[in-house]
């Protein structure tokens, strides 16, 4: 193995460079598309008065969920004392920073007057506290971003010095955890607080959001762990992997149960609540092009749940990885696309307008994703140091701490 | 019929430009045509009408009397002695610009509603003394059914905010 | 909501900061501007960008802003307008009532509104008239795309909908930057120069009464209404919300809203709810009324009634 190492590392370096170049290109082309949107207005998107939010806000909601789920590693690592997870926390932190940045970018590109964002700043502007949930959301998102950036910096240092966890840092972890829960809760409240939109106007929205966020967040972390292991720079502790799989499975089952409760209410005795959902899942009067996607998404979730609850299957890395990827895509479809558009349809005056994201919209969205992946890659490269083999970092290791890491290669 | 509508529309345009001022007792300013039809005045300014109730023949047949579905005729509302004036059912003489008092004889509900500003239309300002359209501004007395003007098409762009 | 004028006007530091921002920009850029920007277009744009919230501005600041708006209209749309800022009428709370027995769905209100309020040729317009099937009052069942030749079952009726000027508006609650609020005379307005264009209010409105400027408004110089107001029908910038203001530029000067004036059947009744002898009080006291989606508790100030 050791003789193949130099070759492998050259290949990896090259692959990384290509990856960065491709992502940078995606960012640049998106910048160009955004310039177009800036010059002509949001008319270049597929949105309209009848359907005033689309891809951007859908992606925002999905990404807030991903960001929130970073807490799944913090809780066990520092509260439940599963110390093996600590070395994986850094990925979670990196993920939250990335996802929150992307989410904020998606809100920003959705603004009609992007230069006026300062109006939302306290003091200089006029944030509508405490009435506007949007104002709350911006506040908690910014705070979560700040706390996680701080933790990440601290983590980088702490990890290098393998310093024990101070009370001070523990406090900030607690803050981050609470903020993580609150960003997604507040984002759900943002939609659930609108009686004008019956499909969103349900108390179950926030818990469903958290559950689905845990699924997609864990899925992302598992996939990242796998990629990093393949690349050979970092290996996720087995305990962390097991924990993520467990949380993903549990959250998925709960999510599906809440989904079933919602569908029951929606379809057993259909009311105005059911309009959007009916369109979404059943394609009422041919009003939705999303039906197949949505049914596919639900199918994948059901299938994944059935597979993952079987313990021997859940122990097989290949199965878990496959399910994680499928689930990520399924929830991306359900939340990133399927939540916003049907919630706005029909308009309160009964108008149905088709929505299809335009090329400009897709290009801008792609650019934000590319930018996020660039940031994530950069953070991992900065913060993830190879960890020695598994046994030293086992779940029930004697001293409860990982062995000191080796320096970067 | 079309002619009458046009006449009416023309009359409205003329009269909207200078308000009739009467009816201070209802606290409203009236607007709308307040003069008698000049067509009738052409002959009846010098010639007394015949007072027997009958179906109108030439030269009256140009007037299509639709009001009252055949139960009404000229002298139910016009004063025979003075064709330039109207009269209530009880016989009280009325000038043309107080026609609403005559209308009230048969249509009290509408008149009450009109005086409260519900029926008809308040003009110019929402404050101060009410300036209301006179009944004949919308209901031509001999053919009182209100005829809607043409419908405006839905502005093309208004379905989607952009193409 | 929480924005009493005091809280908005008060913090002097905030104002100082903003003043300083404007001053620094202006001073540092002044010599350059005179050369590069003889018409003052860039300066106007910058000043609009740094402009503060309408309710934080002094009368003199507002005067300046009004002149700037007039200049911009001429430069950007080639139209000469007069922009004013009539204050709320004291002791008056506006209300609206619609007589459904009278409405014949002629859409004169729709066109008059677009004309009066300088709605972009690409805009959706603020008034919708729905053709309703007989026996049904669910808004979602309405059909907006009818015309004179559309066959309609007997018993169909028409329902005009626009901003209901709720007393507890969901849109005002939603706005993250207080760019929209309810004025003392009951009209819900938008500061077009403060709105960030997030469209959360559009999602929050149960009556679909808010419109977005997806592009720079297309206004024809021939058809513009030159008498405008800051909170009303002045040409809007791209990327901000707009809505029905009951023609605030007219009604605050005693006139009727354009839709009321245009209605050929007299179905629209506009007035002062506080006037005991007024039309609206008469309707509330004598007619069987209903309001749209009253169950959402936004307390709409628009009532619907019929003759019988």
Blueprint (SSEs and pairs):
The complex is a heterotrimer of chains A (409), B (163) and C (308).
Chain A: H1 5-40, H2 55-68, H3 71-79, H4 86-110, H5 133-161, H6 167-192, H7 205-231, H8 238-268, H9 274-282, H10 291-308, H11 311-314, H12 317-337, H13 340-343, H14 359-383
Helix pairs in contact in A: 1-14, 2-4, 2-6, 2-7, 2-12, 3-4, 3-6, 4-5, 4-14, 5-6, 6-7, 7-8, 7-12, 8-10, 9-10, 10-12
Chain B: H1 2-17, E1 28-31, H2 38-44, E2 86-87, E3 93-94, H3 99-106, H4 108-115, E4 130-133, H5 135-138
Parallel strand pairs in B: 1-4
Antiparallel strand pairs in B: 2-3
Chain C: H1 5-9, H2 12-36, H3 41-50, H4 59-77, E1 82-84, E2 94-99, H5 108-116, E3 128-132, E4 157-161, H6 170-174, E5 180-182, E6 188-190, H7 200-204, E7 210-212, E8 227-229, E9 241-243, H8 248-251, H9 258-262, E10 268-272, H10 279-286, E11 289-290, E12 302-305
Parallel strand pairs in C: 1-8, 2-12
Antiparallel strand pairs in C: 2-10, 3-4, 5-6, 7-9, 11-12
Helix pairs in contact in C: 2-3
Q: Determine Rg of chain A (CA atoms, Å).
A: 22 Å
Report how far the terminal alpha carbons of chain A are from each other. 16 Å
Average per-residue pLDDT of chain B, rounded, comes to: 74
Q: Which class of secondary structure composition applies to the elements of chain A?
A: mainly alpha
CATH superfamily of chain A: Formate dehydrogenase/DMSO reductase domain
CATH class of chain A: Mainly Alpha
In percent, how helical is the residue content of chain B? Answer: 25-40%
Mean pLDDT of chain A: 83
Strand order of the largest sheet of chain B: 1-4
Taken in chain order, the helices and strands of chain B follow as HEHEEHHEH
Oligomer: heterotrimer
Number of contiguous helices of chain A? 14
Total tally of structural domains of chain A:
1
> Residue ranges of chain B: pLDDT <50 for 5 or more in a row?
1-26
Query: How much of the sequence of chain A is in beta strands?
Result: under 5%
Structural class of chain B: alpha+beta
């Amino acid at each position: 193995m050791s003789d193949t190492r130099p070759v492998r590392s050259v290949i990896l370096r090259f692959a990384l460079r290509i990856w960065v170049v491709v992502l940078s290109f995606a960012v640049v082309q998106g910048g160009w598309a955004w310039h177009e949107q800036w010059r002509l207005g949001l008319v270049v998107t597929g949105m309209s008065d009848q359907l005033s939010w689309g891809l951007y806000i859908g992606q925002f909601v999905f990404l807030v969920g991903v960001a929130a789920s970073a807490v799944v590693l913090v809780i066990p690592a520092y509260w439940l004392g599963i110390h093996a997870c600590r070395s994986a926390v850094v990925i979670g932190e990196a993920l939250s920073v990335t996802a929150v940045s992307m989410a904020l970018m998606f809100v920003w590109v959705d603004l009609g007057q992007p230069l006026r964002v300062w109006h939302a700043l306290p003091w200089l502007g006029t944030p509508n506290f405490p009435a506007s949930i949007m104002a709350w959301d911006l506040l908690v998102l910014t705070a979560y971003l700040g706390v996680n950036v701080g933790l990440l910096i601290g983590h980088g240092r702490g990890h290098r010095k393998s310093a024990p966890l101070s009370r001070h840092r523990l406090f900030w972890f607690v803050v981050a955890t609470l903020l993580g829960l609150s960003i997604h809760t507040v984002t759900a409240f943002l939609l659930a607080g609108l009686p004008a939109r019956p499909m969103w106007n349900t108390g179950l929205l926030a818990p469903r959001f958290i559950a689905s966020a845990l699924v997609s967040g864990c899925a992302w972390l598992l996939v990242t762990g796998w990629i990093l292991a393949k690349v050979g720079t970092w290996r996720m502790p087995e305990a962390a992997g097991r924990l993520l799989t467990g949380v993903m499975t549990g959250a998925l089952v709960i999510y599906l149960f809440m989904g079933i409760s919602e569908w029951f209410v929606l379809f057993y005795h259909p009311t105005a609540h059911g309009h959007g959902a009916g369109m979404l899942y059943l394609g009422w009067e041919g009003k939705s092009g999303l039906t197949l996607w949505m049914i596919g998404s639900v199918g994948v979730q059901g299938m994944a749940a059935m597979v993952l609850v079987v313990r021997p299957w859940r122990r097989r890395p290949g199965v878990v990885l496959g399910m994680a990827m499928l689930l990520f895509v399924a929830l991306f479809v359900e939340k990133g696309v399927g939540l916003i558009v049907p919630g706005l349809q029909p308009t309160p005056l009964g108008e149905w307008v088709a929505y299809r994201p335009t090329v400009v919209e897709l290009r801008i969205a792609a650019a934000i994703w590319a930018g996020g992946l660039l940031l994530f890659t950069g953070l991992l490269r900065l913060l993830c140091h190879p960890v020695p083999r598994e046994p030293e970092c086992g779940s029930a290791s004697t001293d409860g701490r990982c062995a000191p890491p080796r320096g970067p290669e | 019929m079309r002619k009458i509508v046009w006449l009416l529309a023309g009359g409205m345009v003329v009269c909207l430009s200078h308000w009739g001022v009467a009816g201070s007792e209802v606290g409203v300013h009236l607007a709308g045509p307040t003069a008698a039809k000049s067509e009738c005045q052409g002959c009846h300014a010098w010639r007394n009408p015949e007072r027997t109730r009958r179906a109108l023949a030439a030269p009256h047949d140009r007037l299509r009397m639709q009001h009252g579905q055949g139960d009404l005729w000229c002298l139910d509302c016009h004063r025979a002695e003075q064709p330039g004036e109207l009269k209530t059912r009880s016989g009280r003489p009325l000038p043309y610009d107080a026609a609403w008092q005559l209308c009230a004889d048969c249509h009290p509900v509408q008149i009450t509603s009109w005086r409260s500003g519900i029926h008809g239309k308040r003009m110019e300002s929402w404050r101060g003394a009410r300036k209301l359209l006179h009944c004949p501004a919308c209901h031509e007395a001999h053919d009182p059914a209100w005829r809607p003007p043409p419908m405006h098409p839905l502005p093309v762009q208004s379905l989607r905010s952009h193409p | 909501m929480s924005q009493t004028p005091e809280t908005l006007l008060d913090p002097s530091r905030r104002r100082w900061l903003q003043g300083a921002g404007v001053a620094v920009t202006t001073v540092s850029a002044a010599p350059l501007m005179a050369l590069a920007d003889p018409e003052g277009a860039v300066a106007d744009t910058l000043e609009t960008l740094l402009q503060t919230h309408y309710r934080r501005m002094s009368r003199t600041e507002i005067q300046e802003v009004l002149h700037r708006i007039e200049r911009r209209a001429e430069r950007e749309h080639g139209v000469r307008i007069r922009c004013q800022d009539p204050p709320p009428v004291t002791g008056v709370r506006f209300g609206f009532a619609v007589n459904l027995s009278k409405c014949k769905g002629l859409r004169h209100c729709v066109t008059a509104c677009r004309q009066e309020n300088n709605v972009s040729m690409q805009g959706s317009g603020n008034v919708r008239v729905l053709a309703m099937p007989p026996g049904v009052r669910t808004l979602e069942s309405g059909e907006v795309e009818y015309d004179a030749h559309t066959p309609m079952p007997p018993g169909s009726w028409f329902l005009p909908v626009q901003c209901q000027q709720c007393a507890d508006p969901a849109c005002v609650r939603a706005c993250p930057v207080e760019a929209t609020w309810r004025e003392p005379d009951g009209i819900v307005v938008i500061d077009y120069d403060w709105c960030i264009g997030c469209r959360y209010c559009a999602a929050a409105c149960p009556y679909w009464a808010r419109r977005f400027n997806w592009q720079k408004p297309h206004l024809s110089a021939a058809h513009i209404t030159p008498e405008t107001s800051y909170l009303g029908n002045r040409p809007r910038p791209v990327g901000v919300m707009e809505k029905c203001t009951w023609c605030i530029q007219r009604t605050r000067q005693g006139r009727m809203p354009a839709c009321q004036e245009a209605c050929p059947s007299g179905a629209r009744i506009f007035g002062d709810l506080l006037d005991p002898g007024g039309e609206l009080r008469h309707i509330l006291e004598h007619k069987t009324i209903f309001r749209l989606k009253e169950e959402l508790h936004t307390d709409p100030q628009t009532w619907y009634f019929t003759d019988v």
